[in-house]
Amino acid sequence: MSETSTKPYLLRAIYEWCTDNGYTPYLAVMVDGRTRVPMQFVKNGEIVLNVSFDATSGLRMDNDFIHFNARFGGVSRDIIIPVENVIAIYARENGQGMAFDVAKPSAEDIQAMEDQIDGAARTEPASLSSVPATSADKAEGTASDGNDEPPKKGGRPTLTRIK
């Protein structure tokens, strides 16, 4: 009998720590063929998702998959994430959390995903072309641009992965 991975337990623990302290838990996820997310929001094979109580409905963090419903541009979506694809879980407000090693997809998988993203861009309404800003984002007047530079004073904290 094989041992159960510690990863789903750590994910649930960090999620609980975030919510207990009033922080907004975010998941960074590597997207592949088993991941069900809105493909138009995937950048460089990854997506960052707000998994707070206010942003999700029916969140279940099982040992193999994370399931929840979330709205993207006013459209409810069923999200399914394999636990092994989670790159990190962290608090948006201070960047504290935990990062995990995740195997990079093959070149074939990346090409298939890009084709799927292109297809999603053609079939999805234009209103879904960007992640809607939360009221906190509007108040801060910032958005994540994906660079690895530290945030400017008063800016939004980001998670920096160090390999």
Essential attributes:
163 residues, alpha+beta, SH3 type barrels, four-stranded antiparallel β-sheet, 3 helices, globular
In summary, what is this structure?
With 163 residues, this protein is an alpha+beta fold. It has helices spanning 7-20, 107-123, 135-140; strands spanning 25-30, 46-50, 56-61, 65-72, 75-82, 86-91, 97-99.
Give a structural overview.
This protein has 3 helices and 7 strands, in the order H-E-E-E-E-E-E-E-H-H. Strand 6 and strand 7 (97-99) form a beta hairpin. Helix content is 23%, strand content 26%. The chain is of the alpha+beta class and 163 residues long. The chain has helices at residues 7-20, 107-123, 135-140; strands at 25-30, 46-50, 56-61, 65-72, 75-82, 86-91, 97-99. Mean pLDDT is 78; it is low at 121-148. It is globular.
Highest-level CATH class: Mainly Beta
Structural class designation: alpha+beta
Shape: globular
Q: What is the ordering of alpha helices and beta strands?
A: HEEEEEEEHH
Roughly how many Å apart are the termini? 32 Å
Going across the biggest sheet, name each strand in turn.
2-1-6-7
CATH superfamily: SspB-like
